[in-house]
Design brief:
alpha+beta; three-stranded antiparallel beta sheet; 3 strands
Length: 96
C-alpha cells in the first residue's frame, strides 16, 4: 500500500502525509518504512535523512537504483534493534 503512494520516481512523500493517507498507527508505519528504506539489499525508498531510525520529519522518494531495474520486488522485515538485544540476552541466559 505504501508504494502505491509514489506514482512516479520523482514523487516525494513526508512521514506525516503517509500517516494521514494510510490511516495506520505510527509504530506500524515506522516499521514498514524502515523495511522499505533502511534494508540496503532490498531498498525501495530513499529517506531524506541518513539517520538509523525513521523520524516524523523524514520524507521518502522511490529508490530508482533498486525498484526501476527489478521486475519483482522482495520485502524483508528487519528485526528492530531492541528485539535483537532481547533475543541475544535470552540466548545468553539459556547457555548458562
Amino acid at each position: 500500500m505504501i508504494l502505491l503512494h509514489f506514482p512516479t520516481p520523482d514523487t516525494e512523500r513526508s512521514f506525516a502525509e503517509l500517516k494521514d493517507s494510510l490511516q495506520i498507527e505510527e509504530g506500524l508505519l515506522k516499521r514498514t518504512l524502515h523495511s522499505l528504506s533502511k534494508v540496503k539489499k532490498y531498498r525501495m525508498l530513499t529517506p531524506s535523512s541518513a539517520s538509523k531510525g525513521i523520524k516524523a520529519a523524514d520524507s521518502f522518494k522511490i529508490d530508482g537504483k533498486t525498484v526501476l531495474k527489478s521486475k519483482s520486488v522482495r520485502v524483508s522485515l528487519p528485526t528492530p534493534p531492541s528485539s535483537t538485544k532481547k533475543v541475544k540476552a535470552q540466548q545468553d541466559d539459556n547457555r548458562k
